[in-house]
Structure formats: structure tokens, C-alpha cells
Amino acid sequence: MMxxxxxxxxxxxxxxxxxxxxxxxxxxxxxxxxxxxSAFLGATSSAPSSRHLFTIGVLEGCNFMCLFRFKLxxxxxxxxxxxxxxxxxxQMLLFxxxxxxxxxxxxxxxxxxxxxxxILFLPVLDGPFRTSLQGTPENELQLCVETGDPxxxxxxxxEAVLIYSGDNPFELLKNSIKILEERKGTFTHIEHxxxxxxxDWFGWCTWDAFYTEVSPKGIREGLQSxxxxxxxxxxxxxxxxxQEAINEFKKEGEPLIEGTxxxxxxxxxxxxxxxxxxxxxGSCTDLQDFIQVIKEKYGLKLVYMWHAIVGHWGGVLPxxxxxxxxxxxxxHPIHSPGNVGNHRDILVDSLxxxxxxxxxxxxxxxxxxxxxxxxSSSGVDGVKVDAQYILEALGKGYGGRVSLxxxxxxxxxxxxxxxxxxxxxxxxxxxxxxSIYSSKKSAVARASEDFMPKEPTFQTIHxxxxxxxxxxxxEIVVPDWDMFHSNHSTADFHGAARALGGCAVYVSDKPxxxxxxxxxxxxxxxxxxxxxxxxxxxxxxxxxxxxxxDGESILKIWNLNKLSGVVGVFNCQGAGIWPLKDAEVISAxxxxxLSGHVCPLDVEFLxxxxxxxxxxxxxxxxxxxxxxxxxxxxxxxxxxxxxxKCEIFTISPIRVFDQDLQFAPIGLLDMYNSGxxxxxxxxxxxxxxxxxxxxxxRGCGRFGAYSSKKPTSCVTDTKDMExxxxxxxxxxxxxxxxxxxxxxxxxxx
Length: 749
Fold this sequence. Notes:
Helix 7 (364-377) runs parallel beside helix 8. The chain starts with 7 loop residues before the first strand and ends with a strand. It has 13 helices and 43 strands. Strands 27, 28, 29, 31, 32, 34, 35, 38, 41 and 42 form a ten-stranded antiparallel sheet that branches. Strands 4-5-14-10-9-7-8 form a seven-stranded antiparallel sheet. The longest helix has 19 residues, at 401-419. Helices cover 17% and strands 34% of the residues. It is of the alpha+beta class and 749 residues long.
């Protein structure tokens, strides 16, 4: 179904794709056509201001999913059916609509891909204004535009919200972001960015392992324990705790004043005494010496260091001799009503009270360049830059939130380009749209609230949040799912999600506390990971359901590899509640089971990797059960899971080759993302009566494939391999021994 009608206002109604979205649209609301059937929505006011709240119209009886900031720095999803349920600080709003009907509501029949289309509202940046959406108790939809600086005012914002519609929600988001990229010129789509190499290697982050007590001794102990377990990380993030910083508000001999820990200020760009000869128990002379030693001894390829966007949580110390050349001063954040309307946090309160040592925007590149050039000269390969949200609250006197954020972001990216190879930057706490739509080069960003090992009710929320947030973030950055613990009650749950997230895989285990069984499902012996092609996102039939709290919906996350698809199924019900939602939580100890179904159609764009020989049928391999099924394209496989349990299904299109051979490679059966090991597939006639299937595979371990016939031989590295063939299921298996290098397998028929 093609949708060609551009959004418009007619008879007081906002019409998109021939459907009424809002009624009672005020006369000051303006819709301006953009290319490809999209349009910008904005509004005018009778008086200039730095903040406007415009009513778009009445919205009710709708089926929507939105992404909103429940904290200043993180988004979460919400689904609903009326305008009153749309929270403040909504940064993406997606409606489900039906052909020959109004916007889909709960009384409509189940949607199908044949008669369903989607309407997207993306609030964006319009000059100095930043836009968000929100609902009212009267089911009105409003847009809020604000600059964050009382001196930066205007009486109109005409390109505040992009509206677009289409019959594929994933293509809709991609095309919308590309329209904005071209029109706005302030950010870049992920396809046009350089992807950092750390994404393809297993990593370790020091945060949960040590928090701010990180030290050279602890890092060496951790790396040694991974090495002894046969799973050494190849990239390391040395998180908060390495810098020379001070908490001015902590008096010696007195207990810490709660909240002041977030006002710690940076004193020097160099490492603190723990990483110098004087304080490291003789284990290193300085940061450069330490990094050189651990790279050589433990085979690390990449070492990243942490810092905040303003230096440290509380910025830099203005009285520091090292910092004075950057013209720093203490500024107290000013938060907009939307910022604190959903959730107030101790971090927000602390910075409002104690202030932030902000660097003069004219000097910010010099600061980043000095810091990064020093780190680079010490052997550091990149940085994780935290607390990026704070700039939006510091814009007064600096041209507003959008201007200040953009100046800092451009300076940061320029410094990264100058001092590090391969665009080695991880952005964090950057879910404000000021940051999202100012990302010209940044290619990786954290996608949700932290993994919190001691919070049992946060585990399911974490998985669901990242999957839904990746709908928007994944078009601009590679979403980072955060670290997890391999030795944790939810390790399988989190590990499976990372395997199909298309993201970096890294943990924050304490030294000696690991589950190598979990890790070896993610990491090959050479330290590389089998990363899927795209961000892991909810399947189409999950987009408008609540996988955490509705008590009935499972969460399915899809992705593609080079030759096959993958779907992870997660039972996220009953183990947590969304922030800002009131509900009873089912104890995670109660084995509440949910059932759902998996279908080849769950994998978007599967035909793009299936090739010309695809029959339309697929081989479905379930990781945990080890079962292999054959399904037509529209058929479904039922799955039942208890709370915090998951299953991963590799969905491999069945190709028809010579002699009526039907074949579908699965990949490495003992890896969560089995199909991530597959590189190429080909079939040639080997003799008048037979054929040869050639598969190129990366890695080692148990290899599996669906085959309609028993082969005569399986050969790799010129050696015949013993194989097993289950004629009833069509499962062919054999063991790939030796190194993890790319190898060619020849299967003769």
C-alpha cells in the first residue's frame, strides 16, 4: 500500500494518509509540505517567547507507541490509546492506522500487514528551539518548543515536528531520519558514519567491578581472571575513578553529604595518583606505562577512558591552575518544566544546588584536544563521554540549549577525529533530542538506563527499553546496550539480548566472578563477537504492546545476519514496572508462563538475504531447546516462556539447489547468534550426478545446517569431517576444530 497524500489541515482536522489524526486544530497551527509526502508541523504565537506550548488538536481513540524522557538522560517507551496518556518530553510518537478506518483502536480487528499503515510524529530542532510532544487530560496533543535562554526568543516555530506515514514502520523511521538529515543538516544518519572497531570485540568495563575505586591492581586481576577462563577481553573501558578530581563539599573526617558526589570537579587532565608510581604500589609509573603493559600481557586491542561532557560530573574546578586557561565558571542548571515534570533525581537536585564548572564554549575544543591528545599519547584508543544531557540546562547566556549542545558536540567530535583512530567514541546519558540531532560523527550511544545488578525489578525494563529506544536511536547511532554481569541470575537473559542487539558485547564482572559458559555463547576464542547487521528492535506485532506490564505480551526482537535472520523471544512480564506507572509486580519467583508465536515474517527484509533460490520456507533453529523446524513463510511456531526466560530462533531461508537439494545453513549452534558466523553460501555442480554446497564460516565449534538430503562428505581445510545427519529433522551437524579464522566448508551431495 503506497501512501502519497501529504499531511494537511482541512476543515479544522489534521489529516495524514487520508486519516484524521487530530480534530479541533487551531488556526495558528501550520503544516508545510516537505518531500516524499512528508510535512513539517509548526505554529505561530502573537508574542515572542523562549518557550511556547502550542495545542495541535484533540487526539483520541488512537493506538500509539511513544518514546519519552522519564529522566533527563534516558528515554523509555509507552503504549496507549488516548492523548491523555502521552507523557511530557515525548521525542517520538508512532500511530497504528488501518486502511478504510480511523486510526486503529482497541475495538478494531487484529491488524495485518496488508491493511495497516503507520503515522510518525518526530519532534525535532527548529533553529534555536528544541521540540517535544505531550498530551493533556482533555486528550489534546501539544507541542512544546523552548530555547533554554530567556534572551533567545521567537514568535513562531514552523519546522518543529516532522510528520510522515508509510506501510513499514522500520522503513518509515529510516526515511524520516534521512529527510531530516538532508533538511536540517545538523546530524548524520548512521549509514554515513564510521563505525568504531570496538563493536566487534568482547569488552570489559570497570564500573560495576570497582566503581570509583578502580586501580591498576584491580584491572590486572580482572584481566588475568578472564584470561585464565579462556575468554580474554579485547577492549577495556576504564570508567570513572581514574581522573584527578575533587569534591569541594566533603570535609575531611566528616561523612559524605548525600548528593555532593555528583558535584565532583575535574582538577587536571592527567591521571590521579592511583595510576602513578607514588600511588600504585609500584605496579606502574604512569598511565602510559600501565596501558602498554596490559596491552602486551593480556592482548588488549583497545583501551577507552571515561570522562564527562563537562570534564567530570560537576564540571571542572575553576580555581585549578590547569583549568584556568579554559575560562571556567560555576553555572547553576536551569531545568525546563518538562525536564522535572516526569521525574526528579538526586543528580538533578545536586547540580542545581552546587552548580557545574562549565568551560567557556570558545575554549571547549582546546580542553577536549588537550585531554584527548594526552590520552592518545598514553596509548588510549578512545573515550566514553558521559552526562551529555546537562548542556541543555546550561544554555542561559550561551545562545540557548541547542546552540550550547551543538558547540560542545562539534568540538568533541573534532577532537576525537584529530586524536583517535576509527571514530572511537561512546556517548552516554545523551537521550535529549538536542544531542541526538546534533550528532554529526558520533556513531555509538548508550540506549537505556544502566544495567543495575542489585535491582531485580530493573532487568526486564532494561531489555524492553533498549529494544524500543533503538527504533529511533538506531537510525542515528549504533545503540549500546550497556554492560551486564556474566555471573548473575539474569545473565542468560541479558547475554541473549546483546547477541541479537547488533551492539558491543561487554561485561563488568568483578575479578574471578564469571560464568564462562554464558560468555562463550557470545565470544569466539579469538575475542571477537558475532554481531548482527542492524540494531535489535521489536518485531512489528510487538510495537503497540506493553511487554513489561500488560500481563500477556511477550517481547520479540528481530535482526538480520548476512545469510539469515534471528528473533529473540523474552518474557519480560511480572518482574518490574515502568517508571511513572502504578501497578502490582508479580514476584519473579512465581513461574508465570506466557505463550506467543514466532514466524519467519517476524524478520523484516529477510528476502534481502535469502537469495534467488529461496523457496519461501525457512529452517527455524531454537538455541536453548536445540530443535529444528521447517516453516512456510506465513506459518508460526508456538513458544512458551516463564518470567525472565528467553529463546533465540535462527531463521534461515531454505534455498533450492541442483538435484532438488534444499539447504539452509544455521551456523555455530552453541553461539546465541548462530547465523552471525555465516559469511557466504554457494552451490556448484561437482559431477554429473551431484553438487557441492560451499559455506564460508567464521569461528569454531558445532556447525549446523538444514539439509533435505544426507551428504556424501563434508570437507574443510582439505580434511574430511565426521558428521551426523538426522533425517527426520533434516539437521546436519559437525565440529569445526582449530582456529577462529574464516574457513571454507564443502558439503558434497
